[in-house]
Amino acid sequence: MPCIEDSTYIPPRFLHSGHALTIWASCWRKLPYSWEPWFSTVRLRTPDGDFFDVDCLPARPDARSDSAVILSHGLEGNSRRPYVRGMAEAFRAMGWDALARNFRGCSGEPNLTPGIYHGGQTGDLHQTVLYAQELGYRRLVLVGFSMGGNQTLKYVGEDPDRVPALVCAAVGISTPCDLEASAEVLTRPSRLPYMAHFLKTLRAKIREKHSRFPERVDIGRLWRVFDFEAFDNLYTAPLHGFRNAHDYWRRASCLPVLSDIRLPVFILNARDDPFLSPQCSPVDLARDSALLTLEMPQHGGHVGFVSSDPARYWSETRTVQFVNEVVGTAA
């Protein structure tokens, strides 16, 4: 499949940079609809004694579709973020149900184990897929954003035999396929506001963990954490079985397993994404692959493919277009 470098996306005139698109989409997107009459939340218990929550949004209130999309949000996001809701609505408009999962500790209630989540954690996504299979869906598409995109693509590539046959395609939007390279980009001075935003909530979660697991979670050096390397060295790596931050980034990245994927994959990474490095977009692999489509618009920021219609961003239109091409609409 192609490596699309002449993308059709054109941002609004007043949003002329990756930073502007990123911030606008994150802070000012207003959706003209409410989920309240539609959705229900299911709590899935995990084999290690923990849980995570999944929001279920049917395309119709009176019947389940035969097709569903599983949505995975980004770092410190949740299932109610506008980019998740917008994508859910785009799929529901073509007759697909949506299952929007929350990472552990991201649905408003602390999870039960000392760890939280990380970029290479695929077991919870697999459990969500199995749950959807039990519900009777015949077709599933997996869509992930940022860290959720890395999890999604790693899941379908690291052990293809584990992925049920009903999973038809996978999509990663603004995906840091190389976590190590992405972490390096985010140390640049111009990225300090993003880093401060992420670390504010991550520090709060670590303090909460310390209150329940003081023997496992030490906050003595938390005040010295100003970037992902420090945070992942002190917390992500030891709590999830990695040697250090670099070991975590290398083992958790989806890039090494993309060539093993056996189903159609679409990666949408903007060239002006302030979170990503060129290594995050596997150009050579896409050119040689029959299954991987990589699209790299000049603009789009990080999950910031703003359009004139707040109800449907360009990335949502482009994703359902790809799915229709490789899978088709719901029956």
Keywords:
globular; 9-stranded mixed sheet; 331 residues; alpha/beta; single chain; 2 domains
In short, what is this structure?
This protein has helices spanning 18-27, 82-92, 123-135, 147-158, 179-185, 192-212, 228-240, 245-252, 283-288, 314-326; strands spanning 3-4, 40-45, 51-57, 67-72, 97-101, 139-145, 167-173, 265-268, 292-295. The chain has 10 helices and 9 strands.
CATH architecture of the largest domain: 3-Layer(aba) Sandwich
* Proportion of beta-strand residues: 5-15%
Strand order of the largest sheet: 1-9-8-7-6-4-5-3-2
Largest sheet: 9 strands, mixed
What CATH calls the topology of the largest domain is: Rossmann fold
SS element count, helices: 10
What's the order of the H and E elements? Answer: EHEEEHEHEHEHHHHEHEH
**What is the first-to-last residue Cα distance?**
26 Å
The overall pLDDT average reads 95
User: Which word captures the global form?
Assistant: globular
Percent of residues in helices comes to 25-40%
Radius of gyration: 19 Å
Q: Please give the domain count.
A: 2
By CATH, the superfamily of the largest domain comes out as Alpha/Beta hydrolase fold, catalytic domain
Account of the 3D structure:
The chain has 331 residues and is an alpha/beta fold. It folds into 2 domains: 3-178 and 255-326, Rossmann fold; 179-252, no CATH class. 34% of the residues lie in helices and 15% in strands. The chain has 10 helices and 9 strands. The protein has helices at 18-27, 82-92, 123-135, 147-158, 179-185, 192-212, 228-240, 245-252, 283-288, 314-326; strands at residues 3-4, 40-45, 51-57, 67-72, 97-101, 139-145, 167-173, 265-268, 292-295. It has a 9-stranded mixed beta sheet with strand order 1-9-8-7-6-4-5-3-2, with helices on both faces. Strand 8, helix 9 and strand 9 (292-295) form a beta-alpha-beta unit. The longest helix is centred in the middle third of the chain and has 21 residues, at 192-212. It is globular, with a radius of gyration of 19 Å. The two termini are 26 Å apart. The model has no long low-confidence stretch (mean pLDDT 95).
